[in-house]
Specification:
heterodimer, A: 517 residues, alpha/beta, 6-stranded mixed beta sheet, two-stranded antiparallel sheet, 10% strand, B: 332 residues, 7-stranded mixed beta sheet, 3-stranded antiparallel beta sheet
Chain lengths: 517, 332
């Protein structure tokens, strides 16, 4: 048995125990806390809220001479009571508020009487609603609710766009009042229509593909012709021509770049019994949509060997030549949102007509619907112009930025185990900076004379940074570790350390108390 | 001795206190019923587009098991792959993750093939499959990154990304070995029900899905969807808590079980479905027979607002394209 502890040994033991405690407390614990704490960079959540509020307030764009939205509803009812006019007004307000360009508009419904038919209107201002006068009608009357437009003031969006857009959407829904209300309230339909197009992208890649069905049972003249180098080079020449036209059109002001690949332009299928080959029997929309399921047309970018981090958005345009035998149908075409368009050749393949269709499809995919403008004498369809694209895309990008940053705020707040790298903070700050730059420019009275791309670029940059922030690959959630797993890991680690430390300290304390006594 | 005991108890209590703090913080994130309902209502109200219409379909099919004796798990995933392809989802919209390659396993008596039936009528590993993640690429981290798209875009090709949007219906199928609120990956790690729930929450916030059908075939599968709290998620599992899921049958020549019961009876139903079918999810769920499956398949519908009798099978297993016919017009 060991003898009593010497004084030197006692001092040494105390020093050792206290040293271990010092290392544990001063070095060990902070190190453990530092390495196990989830790093969460503070995000400017209040600044994000401010953006949201600014957007809801209309970005400071409302002016007395601001753009007006013209809405025309044709209602055939024997009587229109106050509650119904209330509903129409409320639905129109909601429609405008939820419209992507709502910060640029305000709704004003005024009374007008222009034609021989008595017309009644609603007198109110959307933001400061005054009580509506009671409005009644008699049989055969029509009601037109519209807003005076002002084409002469500078800085106003060409009202033709929304004027005709709204008229086109609402006017041709010639149903009863209930359906008209439904049509007005179907903001989802309108917004989804406007969102059909490609939102602003750094680049758009147009891929034109000539798809030929080879009928193995016979050699058709069309097949032979289509397989000939002459036909194929003609195809490429036409496709390139469309590309050049688009590139030099107003569309180019809306996009950073439009590219076109001349190498991938031709594909064919050899099985005459395939779904594509049977298309001529049934060219219904349902059937055609199924065709795209079975023929998996890979975007051109997938054919590159090097993955492209900033891969452009790809729009596919397919010109399909079905087997010639028995094909007496005219040419047929359809588009698919965010994918592209298909033209199915009729009895006689017409490359020029096909390309014309493709050009229309490009515009259709990148903008709201072609709308009808009533000149009073006739109606005509027009396409939005580049600066109108730009305005729409600007607002969509600004809205997208706010939505994305708000979503990021919610995620970061609710998922406390989610790491937030410092890079994400920088991206959020950049997004907010770009947002303010866009808004500052958009508030300029001479915006139409500015290069819209400047405003659009800032807005797009804001949306881009916001998306980069929320999809940052380092902003991952820490995995959930069950309690029993933590026990199994930490107990064998901490136990052999904690027990001697506590025992040693306890003994020192007891000895100190005894000494005091 | 008493002193030592006291010290040990103190030390154990200290460890428990430290560890419990972390656990409690995480579990408090699970929402109670009333809060969940309000949360869902707020979420759906904020997203006006969450109607019954979707514009495209995607599928994420994952077999998490490694080793030859888990042949059936890969066969499960490949069977689902074949089904969704047959019903129209293209390869570009399918993410197939197979943790092992049984087709080329030296033990495979029929090299280059995978069968899900002892009659070997159908080779699932034909020449027209695209496996996006194979072997050791199939990890929890990869899986969660695919779902949330928090992926290195400089090195990951688009074909390996889930490029969904707010109009996408996603069918997520998981099969492998699991337990109470966890699923094993590669016999080395686990994904918990909490992680999956939070991944779905991130997907919802980033508008990466319209609706999700979550299907899982593992032991105690129903526990994996117990922590979900995001809207528009329809979940179905093969077995309850403390219940195992079983294989259906083995192939004596292959030497192992080739398909699991839950997946087998799902496939039996889905073989009746074609692209134009009007069979609904309610029909599918009503076809589940615990006597045949040997476990109690569960369905969670509280997060899913549509009536199941209105939801077609093809809303998840098939594909849809929003097609607009071009009209002739005079344009400028």
């Amino acid at each position: 048995m060991l003898g009593p502890e010497s004084a030197e040994a006692l001092v040494l033991r105390r020093k050792v125990v206290l040293s271990f405690w010092a290392v544990f407390v001063i070095l060990g614990l902070p190190l453990w806390i530092h390495t196990t704490t989830i790093h969460r960079a503070p995000l400017p959540l209040s600044a994000v809220k401010v953006l949201d509020d600014e957007l809801k307030d209309g970005l400071g764009l409302h002016r007395d001479d601001g753009p007006r939205l013209r809405v025309s509803i044709e209602v055939k009812e024997s009587c229109l009571v106050r509650t119904t006019t209330d509903e129409i007004r409320q639905e129109l307000e909601r429609l405008v508020r939820s419209d992507v360009a709502s910060p640029l508009f305000r709704l004003e419904l005024v009374h007008r009487q222009e034609s021989s038919l008595p017309r009644y209107g609603l007198d109110c201002i959307a933001s400061n609603s005054t009580p509506l006068p009671k409005t009644t009608m008699s049989d055969g009357d029509e009601i037109t609710v519209y807003i005076p437009t002002n084409n002469s003031s500078p800085g106003i969006i060409a009202t033709g766009l929304y004027d005709a857009f709204m008229a086109d959407y609402l006017f041709f829904n010639k149903h009863d009042l209930g359906s008209n209300i439904q049509a007005v309230s179907d903001t989802t339909g309108i917004v989804s229509t406007m969102h059909r197009g490609a939102t602003y992208a750094d680049a758009i890649h147009l891929s034109f593909t000539l798809l030929i069905a080879l009928d193995s049972s016979s050699t058709s003249t069309r097949t032979v012709e289509a397989l000939s180098p002459t036909f194929q080079s003609e195809w490429r020449a036409h496709a390139e021509n469309v590309w050049n036209t688009l590139r030099s059109s107003e569309l180019s002001r809306y996009l950073t770049s439009v590219t076109f690949d001349t190498d991938v332009g031709f594909q064919y299928i050899t099985d005459g019994n395939s779904e594509w080959a049977r298309v001529e029997q049934d060219a219904s929309p349902d059937r055609l949509s199924i065709l795209l399921d079975t023929w998996d047309l890979q975007p051109v970018t997938l054919l590159t060997t090097t993955p492209n981090s900033s891969a452009p958005k790809v729009l596919q345009f397919v010109y399909f030549l079905p087997p010639e035998s028995g094909n007496t149908k005219p040419s047929f075409s359809f588009t698919i949102a965010n994918w592209g368009g298909v033209v199915i050749a009729g009895e006689s393949p017409d490359l020029v007509a096909a390309m014309r269709t493709f050009k229309k499809q490009v515009y259709k995919l990148m903008s709201p619907v072609a709308f009808t403008v009533n000149d009073g004498t006739k109606s005509r369809k027009v396409r939005p112009r580049a600066h109108e694209f730009a305005r729409i895309a600007t607002i969509m990008n600004l809205q997208g930025t706010v939505e994305t940053l708000s979503a990021l705020s919610r995620l970061v707040t609710s998922l406390q185990e989610m790491a937030v790298p410092s890079k994400v903070r920088e991206l959020v700050d950049n997004a907010i900076t770009e947002w303010h730059a866009a808004v500052t420019n958009i508030q300029q009275p001479d915006i139409d004379t500015l290069s819209e791309n400047r405003v659009l670029r800032h807005a797009a940059a804001a949306a881009h940074y916001a998306r980069q922030a929320i999809f940052d690959k380092d902003m991952m959630l820490n995995m959930f570790v069950p309690f029993e797993h933590k026990i199994a890991v930490y107990l064998p680690l901490l136990g052999p350390v904690i027990v001697p430390l506590i025992a040693g300290l306890r003994r020192i304390i007891i000895e100190a108390r005894r000494k005091e006594k | 001795m008493n002193e030592l005991l006291k010290i040990l108890v103190l030390a154990f209590a200290a460890c428990l206190a430290l560890l419990s703090a972390g656990v409690n913080a995480r579990e408090q994130t699970v929402l109670d019923d009333a809060t969940l309902k309000q949360f869902l209502s707020d979420q759906l109200g904020a997203r006006e587009g969450a109607t019954g219409k979707h514009a495209n379909n995607w599928a994420v099919l994952v077999s998490t098991s490694r080793f030859w004796f888990n042949y059936r798990h890969l066969a499960n995933a490949l069977s689902m792959y074949r089904t969704v392809k047959r019903l129209g989802i293209p390869d570009s919209q399918i993410i197939l993750m197979l943790a092992d390659d049984v087709a080329c396993n030296p033990r495979n008596a029929f090299p280059g093939t995978v069968y899900n039936n002892a009659d070997r009528a159908l080779d699932l590993y034909s020449n027209n499959i695209e496996v996006d993640y194979r072997g050791y690429e199939v990890t929890v981290d990869t899986f969660l990154r695919v779902l949330t798209d928090k992926i290195d875009r400089t090195t990951t090709p688009r074909s390996k990304r889930l490029l969904t949007d707010e109009h996408s219906n996603i069918f997520i199928y998981l099969t492998g070995h699991g337990g109470n609120e966890f699923l094993k990956f590669q016999d080395a790690e686990e994904v918990s029900a909490f992680d999956l729930a939070d991944a779905f929450a991130q997907m919802w916030e980033t508008k990466r899905y319209h609706e999700i059908l979550f299907m899982i075939d593992t032991c105690q599968a129903n526990t994996m969807y117990s922590k979900f709290y995001s809207p528009n998620v329809l979940a179905v599992g093969s077995s309850e808590l403390d219940e195992s899921s079983y294989s259906h049958h083995a192939d004596s020549d292959v030497g192992v079980a080739v398909i699991d019961r839950f997946t087998y009876y799902n496939l039996e139903f889905l073989e009746k479905v074609d692209k134009g079918s009007e069979l609904t999810m309610k029909d599918l769920f009503e076809s589940y027979d615990p006597v045949k499956i040997h476990s109690h398949a569960g369905v969670r519908t509280d997060l899913y607002k549509r009536n199941l009798s209105d939801v077609r099978i093809t809303d998840f297993f098939g594909n849809v394209q929003a097609v607009e016919i071009d009209e002739d017009d005079d344009d400028q």
